[in-house]
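Exam revision sheet. Question 4 asks you to relate a sequence to its structure. Input first:
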Amino acid sequence: MKFKRFLDALFNKLLSPKTKEKSEQAILWIALGSFITHLIIIGLVHFNIIYLAEPSNLLKNPIAAIYTPFSFILVYEVYLLIYYLPQSTSIYIAKQYEIITLIVIRRLFKDLSDLSLSANWFSIKNDLQFTYDLIASLILFYLIYLFNKQRNKIYRKNDTNKLQRQSVSKFIYAKKLMATCLVPVLFVIAVYSFFSWLLGIMPNHNSDEAISFKNINNIFFEQFFNILIMADVILLLFSFFHTDEFHKVIRNSGFIISTILIRISFASSGIINNLLIITAIVFGLLVFIIHNKFEKQLAIEAPKKADENNL
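Answer key, structure tokens:
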């Protein structure tokens, strides 16, 4: 009981609506400050007040400055993912899809700083990447719309059986425990990723563990999605205590496969990266559509079974 009270107090401290609102305000101010700072650094590099032998395009083009505040907003989106975890599995998965879509959108700002406007558009790597990301972002946006439409379909009422309610309560408690543990993990990975990247861009630093400009899009998210996969597997195992319905087990397993495909996408580049992300969300969407068809069928059959039991 003491542990439960401690968990509830910690959960309310880290993941309450009040904390969410304060975090949102803080991130917005940090994002605004980082945008202005990035613009100032670009200006200093441009006027040779700060000298860099080979500055990244992120420090040359003012458009690229949008990349920095977007990064902080993405970290807040990860917090929201954890925030919604105890409330709804489908919202939690939708947040994963929104995050990877925002990563692609953020990458577009970096792509814009690398564009070479010429007649050889389709033979230039950076221009092609911009094209892939532009098309992928539209497809992903529409897929998320379809996923959210499926999420709003409810065919069966909440369980009224006392034993079933207790089972649901235990599963929600397990999700609260998982979410509470993920918040400090989020903070530690964010700090570690930032300082690893900072070390990687320092002159005369040759560490294999440092993160370079080459894979800057993967900073933080590559490590966090590894943790997310493990969390999803643990929740899948806990879900067996809650339900053994075939279609729900397949749905939860399918969502894990979808998360794994998103994680694999970080190890690829170019059109393969975009295809993996789109495949991940299409797979999750199709699993969810089929799951809802099962739910609809069971909702139709439920009154018939109730009448048979009353005979």
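Marking note for examiners. Residues 255 and 295 are 17 Å apart (CA to CA).
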